[in-house]
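Chain A, query sequence.
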Amino acid sequence: MSYSAKYVCFAGCEGVEYPLEQIIYRCESCGGLLDVEHDLDALRQRTGAEWRELFDARMIQRDWPNGGGVWGKQEWILPGIDHADIITMGEGGSALLPLARYGQDLGLSDLHMKLCGNSHTGSFKDLGMTVLTSQVNRIRRQGGSIAAVGCASTGDTSAALSAYCAVEGIPTVVFLPANKISMAQLVQPIANGATVLSLDTDFDGCMGLIQEIVQRFPIYLANSMNSLRLEGQKTVAIEIVQQLGWEVPDWVVVPGGNLGNVFAISKGFRLMKELGVIDRLPRLLCAQAANANPLYRAYKDGWASFKPVQAQKTLASAIQIGNPVSIHRAIRALNAHQGVVEQASENELMDACARADRSGLFTCPHTGVALAALEKCVSNGTIGRNERVVVVSTAHGLKFTGSKAAYHGEELDGIAGRYTNKPLELEASADVVIETLAERFGFGVS
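Chain A, predicted structure.
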């Protein structure tokens, strides 16, 4: 079958459409963001049951690159691309982990976590970057004028972009706010050969600067305002349902910064419903750090207005964003899913990380924001204790060992951790060790 997709105006400007090969990021009519629109009539030639059967077969076969990850849904993502143009590092297909013990601790009977951080560069950004860089590879091979691919980043986007472009030797430029990301995040683009610009500003400043520069220099913009990224990220929703036996959860919890991922996950669910793969949508809970909470403020105001904020420092550095590019996309997504927005303080997010880690996880601070918001919504009755909940974990905790070690070492200013676990410094004596363990575990000493 022949499938196709194109850019259209997200705001709905009539007659506005562009081919995916065109280097364009905003509607030329209204200046708003673009969206990728698929030919639904062609996709409907298969029934929902037939799509489920096809995707399940690919997950089992792992036919490269059309295995069970992002490219296993190629017809819904980037139809028509040659396999030779695809840049993939095996992204997608991450575990949907049942959290029985942690769920019981929260009072939830059916809790899962989608481990999107178990990916090549350690974050969900790989899911979108495989699509964007594959399209860049395609355009360059067709003679398109792209000197380099660039992004503003708080860490994870730059890591994914640099790694995927390095596969084909495509130059990359990353705009990073100086001294605002972890060393683990900084070293990734450096190791992959990117040109790293450390700028004396925050993420919003980097984002404004790169948008100006791409108008004057042939850098292809890789931030999530480029809707190709969202096509890969929407596979998170498809995988969640597929891994639940094609059953829809009641709630999906997503941390929100620049807010593209909230819209992408909604887009995946809505496409499945339009094609008859599922028959209902889950509710969405978007979680923000209290120090960078413009969406939460707009939600509490009943969506009457949106005002950017000056984001304050947060340990959830990847979502330290005060003027999110995808704000209107996120609002549309939340309205479509009867969505809720909650926030988490620095103390709450770090406590939530530590509490979850005690059940075997190793959570990043952004997932901690999602978990803290979940705890609040369970406590206040927004989320029912018998409802099925999936939390989207966006990055691997190993990228944030500094903040986690500081938490357990009780070294974070203003944070009085409830679940800290400092090493016990003891004399190297069997008697001392046994006495200490007996006291801790309640066993008598023989």
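The two ends are 75 Å apart (CA to CA). Residues 96-122+230-408 form a domain with the Rossmann fold fold (CATH 3.40.50.1100).
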